[in-house]
């Protein structure tokens, strides 16, 4: 316990300070004269420091929660600035959230393609999807029957190669695939004209795209376009039938099925009118009276006077094949609407457009047809 003299001196010092007779003591020396406050009183004495500690704790809690989800309401209460800059932790969480959304969107696209393909069968000028069971499928057009028989013949290794090829260069190929002389066609216009070197180049390009996990566009440039070029633009061919990349070719609105979004394809075959002197002027006059001055269902300028035939949609391995069928279905449906308008005939609306598919390990063939009512 402090002595009486010390207490008396302390009281006199306080009174003198209040009366202004002596200058105020420095803050530090004044504190030495007071007894230390009890711990439970500390929060009342220093509220500012306590508030800062609470803010720091709140930020730490936010950073911990950001590893799961960014708690935006809590973040707003913990900051006084109207437009706070995102913290690195929030950015990381946003990236993770974006990655999850991308995965979810990729999965939903496949489901969306399947749903849209199903809905396409209910709209006017839509398509009916069917499986092609073979040459015995009812109501098959004769050209499709002939095509299927040719595919079956090729699968058996018959007339795969053109008779104009050098047979000695194919000896190793025949041995590796257990083929005989029946692999060569009797007609030089039947069978493949590709040489073993051509096939090796295509296989190397396909292996490179697969190993590097290239996108569809690279597959088209490295594999699909070179293959089409070797087949349709080989030396000595008539070039009456050609192909083009048509990823930017839009469908003319008048031909698009109702309640359907536009779709595009990668390649299409077309007839080149420049190789028929009598055909070119007639088709140019004819196209002037059609929508977008085009003889096709697309307004793509390079194809306006070149009737299209076969359409090709490519997909890299393991991607959405329902999406590819949807693209072909919408594209071909618009093609048939255009043909109906040109023929000016009465068509069976109940039949619509039939789309049949041929499945194999590495490719999928689709043909479409419509039934005329005479």
TrEMBL record:
UniProt-annotated stretches for the region Disordered: 12-114
Methyltransferase keyword on record: yes
Alphabetical keyword list: Methyltransferase, Transferase
Ranges of Low complexity composition bias in the record: 78-114
InterPro entries in the cross-refs: PDDEXK_12 (IPR046797)
Record-annotated PD-(D/E)XK nuclease-like domain positions: 177-352
Biological-process GO terms, alphabetical: methylation
Biased composition (Polar residues): 15-24
Cited Pfam families: PDDEXK_12
Molecular function in Gene Ontology: methyltransferase activity
Protein name per Swiss-Prot or TrEMBL: Methyltransferase type 11
Organism: Fusarium austroafricanum
């Amino acid at each position: 316990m402090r002595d009486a003299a010390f207490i008396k001196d302390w009281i006199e010092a306080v009174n003198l300070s209040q009366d202004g007779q002596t200058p105020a003591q420095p803050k530090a020396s004044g504190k030495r004269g007071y007894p230390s406050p009890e711990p439970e009183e500390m929060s009342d004495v220093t509220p500012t420091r306590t508030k800062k500690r609470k803010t720091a704790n709140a930020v730490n809690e936010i950073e911990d929660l950001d590893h799961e989800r960014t708690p935006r309401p809590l973040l707003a209460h913990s900051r006084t600035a109207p437009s706070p800059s995102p913290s690195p932790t929030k950015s990381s969480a946003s990236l993770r959230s974006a990655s999850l959304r991308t995965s979810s969107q990729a999965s939903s696209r496949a489901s969306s393609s399947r749903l849209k393909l199903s809905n396409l069968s209910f709209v006017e000028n839509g398509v009916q999807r069917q499986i092609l069971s073979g040459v015995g499928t009812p109501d098959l057009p004769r050209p499709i029957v002939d095509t299927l028989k040719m595919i079956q013949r090729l699968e058996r290794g018959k007339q795969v190669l053109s008779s104009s090829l050098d047979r000695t260069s194919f000896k190793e190929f025949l041995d590796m695939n257990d083929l005989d002389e029946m692999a060569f066609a009797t007609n030089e216009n039947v069978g493949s004209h590709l040489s073993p070197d051509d096939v090796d180049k295509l296989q190397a390009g396909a292996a490179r795209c697969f190993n590097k996990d290239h996108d569809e566009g690279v597959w088209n440039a490295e594999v699909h376009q070179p293959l089409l070029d070797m087949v349709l633009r080989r030396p000595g061919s008539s070039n009456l039938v050609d192909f083009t990349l048509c990823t930017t070719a839009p469908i003319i609105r008048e031909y698009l099925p109702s309640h359907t979004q536009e779709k595009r394809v990668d390649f299409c075959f077309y007839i080149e009118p420049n190789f028929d002197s009598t055909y070119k002027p007639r088709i140019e006059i004819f196209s002037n009276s059609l929508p977008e001055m085009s003889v096709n269902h697309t307004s793509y300028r390079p194809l306006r006077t070149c009737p299209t035939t076969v359409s090709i949609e490519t997909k890299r391995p393991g991607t959405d094949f329902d999406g590819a069928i949807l693209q072909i279905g919408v594209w071909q449906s618009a093609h048939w609407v255009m043909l109906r308008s040109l023929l000016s005939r009465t068509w069976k609306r109940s039949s619509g457009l039939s789309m049949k598919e041929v499945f194999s390990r590495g490719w999928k063939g689709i043909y479409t047809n419509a039934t005329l009512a005479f």
